[in-house]
Amino acid sequence: MFSGGYQGKYLRINLTNRTIEEGKINPEWQRKFLGGRGLAARFYYDEIGNDIKPLSSDNKLIFFTGPLTGTIGPATTKIGLATKSPETRQYLCSNGGGFFGPHLKKSGYDGLIIEGKANKPVYTLIEDNQIKIKQGGNLWGKTTKEVNKKLKEIVGREDQILSCGPAAENRVRLSCIQIGERSIGRGGAGAVMASKNLKAIAVKGTGEIAVNESSKFKEVMKDAISYVRKSKANHTKYGTAQYTAIMNELGCYPTRNFQTGVFDGIDTITAEYMKENFFIKNQACFRCPVACAQLCEVREGNFKGAKSDPEYESIGTLGAVCGVSDFAAIIKANEICDELGIDTMSVGVIIGFAMELFERGYITKKETGGLELKFGNGVAMVNMIEKIAKREDIGDLLAEGMLGIAEKMPKMQRYMMHVKGLPLAAYDPRGFYGNALTYGTSSRGACHNVGGWSIRDELLSDKYDRFAVKGKGKLIKSIQDTRGYIDSLGICTVVRSGYGFTDKPQGKVLEYLTGYDFTSELMTIGERIYTLERLIINREGRFRKDDMIPVRLRTEKMPEGQAKGHVVSDEIYNTMLDEYYEARGWDMNGRPTKERLYELSLDNILT
User: Fold this and answer.
1) Which of 194, 225, 397, 414 is the most exposed place for a label (fewest CB within 10 A)?
2) Percent of the chain scored above 70 by pLDDT?
């Protein structure tokens, strides 16, 4: 069906019996779900049932590239992942940048499925069509940085390697998979990888990716690159950290475990402060003209020598959520998370929660191993990350994630900031009501990406007031559907407008690449993907009751700032949720109707 963009096959590696097989991808699946997140969800639906436990050998790691991954366009870097999450104990979709996805594609494969469990530590090496499962005992216990240094000698670059760190080996449920200095961050996929005794996957591809109309494709890619360079100048200059001061000014910057939306230590964690005092250089993913990663180094003080590239979310969760205004501590915390393999967002919110418990007297130095775990104590925050990774003292409980903590401390749930077990991102929805819906209805739990980043529309569009209720359900559906297809194309969302990929897709990019004109179908494909994910989590027991946001956001008014007095009450939230379900064609319990499944050509998978 397709004359370009796809290789048409995937790898299936069974670690239990050490078999390696090639599988053909159904072209109809590619037409309906594109690739990346969509195709991974389609395989998940068939292969990972309700009875499968996240850390059992029956769980799988399902990776898929998109049609644009590895091509000459800007930031064609992404690979999508689906697995059952140890953190949320349900369906997880995630993605990562770097060079791994493009090299897998250039090796001749659109996807990779890892199943089973090796009887001892291994790593997998993919060099074009040569695939090997190699002994990895010498890598076990090593940091991701140490693993990458070793395997870089074979494949050439650190960001052609997926690796999990010591936290994953200790089954920390918020452990991630590293791709060089990038992460497949949320949901605990690193623990799934380690549970299979798989320490790393390294790939080196030298093949070609077919293009249907090469000259036309090159021409539109030149225009896309030029547009992206001009329109994303601030991303190049400051990265996503550019939003830090803005969100604080708007009164929605979560501070001290979401007790307020204004951080009094903002002046020393802004993008400008970072640039002036810590910046070294920009870093880029595959073929990215933006290079938004801001590599920073601490030059003096307790954390001298620490290097990392903290983004907006990491600065927010490791900074204001924990009350920490010491940017050096944030850089160090980010570095430790990268090397030990821990999601910066989950760990920051969980430590912020623990800090509030400490200040309220619910936990003491006895539980923290002597740490003065108070808001603003950057040293204690850094030390607690290490304790979580090693499962020491209260770190052992915090390593279980929000759901595990709730089981042990049910009376503390009023202070827990999560949806479906996934901690919130660094935006307080009392400052943007639509953002509450993005957290509540996200397929993977509280998330500003999969759930939809509504803030741009709520702030800049004449159609939406950020404190309005009406219209937010329809808005969030549109944003989520847009993100659904973009996550399946293999590109970074930062550059999407350069391709014409918005909620009103335009252009001939995909036709020139694949030979098939997807453009008019993209929003339907996005909705189909999102609805398939809803079928999955319905099957796993998630319904309306699980789409609720944390108690604090529904009952405590914002105490200060531009959002002062605002709260996303039950009445407000349920009104928006009803509108959202209606727009999606779901019943009021959050289950897609048979009529909507038929319209989206999803009715056939239920038979």
Assistant:
1) 414
2) 100
Residue 564 has which token pair?
A: 């002062």
Distance of CA 219 to the CA centre of its chain: 32
Q: What is the pLDDT of residues 57-99, one digit of tens each?
A: 999 999 999 999 999 999 999 999 999 999 999 999 999 999 9
How many residues in total does the chain contain? Answer: 607
Check residue 605 and give its pLDDT.
82
The residues facing 61 across adjacent strands are: 114
Hunting for tokens 């219209």 — which residue is that? 471
Domain assignment of residue 497, yes or no: no
Which of helix, strand or coil describes residue 226?
helix
Average pLDDT, the chain: 96
**Residue whose pair of structure tokens reads 């189909």 in the numeric block:** 528
Dist. CA 235–CA 240, nearest whole Å: 6
**Bridge partners (DSSP) listed for residue 126:** 131, 203
Its domain, for residue 456, covers: 428-486+518-606
**Residues 133 and 319 sit within 8 Å (Cβ to Cβ):** no
The secondary structure of 79-128 as a DSSP string is EEEEEE-TTTSSEEEEEE-TTHHHHHHHTT-SEEEEES--SS-EEEEEET
pLDDT at 460: 80
Domain C-terminal end among 416, 448, 467:
416
User: Are 395 and 435 found together in one domain?
Assistant: no
Beta strands, E only, 443-572: none
Q: What angle do CA 85, 362, 256 make, to 5 degrees?
A: 65
In whole angstroms, how large is the CA radius of gyration of the chain? 22
Cα separation, 110 vs 107, in Å, equals 9
CA distance 88 to 365: 28
Helix (H, G, I), strand (E, B) or coil at 26: coil
CA distance 229 to 467: 33
Cα→Cα distances 319→86, 258, 310, 314, 324, Å: 25, 12, 11, 8, 5
Instruction: Transcribe 539-598 into DSSP letters.
Output: HTT--GGGGPPPHHHHHS---SSTTTT----HHHHHHHHHHHHHHHTB-TTS-B-HHHHH
Looking at the DSSP bridge assignments, the partners of residue 592 are 586
Q: Which of 34, 35, 10, 28 is nearest to 20 (CA)?
A: 10
Tokens 């379900």 label which residue? Answer: 581
Q: Looking at the structure, tell me whether residues 51 and 125 fall in a common domain.
A: yes
Q: Where residue 548 sits, what CATH number does that domain have?
A: 1.10.599.10
CA 451 to chain centre: 11
